[in-house]
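User: Show me a protein chain along with its predicted structure.
Assistant: Here is one chain, sequence first, then structure tokens.
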Amino acid sequence: MQRRGEVIELTMTITIILLYLLSFLLVWQFAGYPSLMAIVALKSKPKDKDFSYQPSVSIIVPTYNEAKVV
């Protein structure tokens, strides 16, 4: 059976671990991940664009007996 002091010590240890983990996640969200994405963007090569490509476009008009109006 654990004594009261051991339970408090275990609770404090878990609390400190959670504090460090959540602090790391907060810093990672606002600084680490954007920095990583900036580095990846700098290292990747820009792709050549093909401006001669013209996509086909279709327009669908859902109507019923509206041939005179459309």
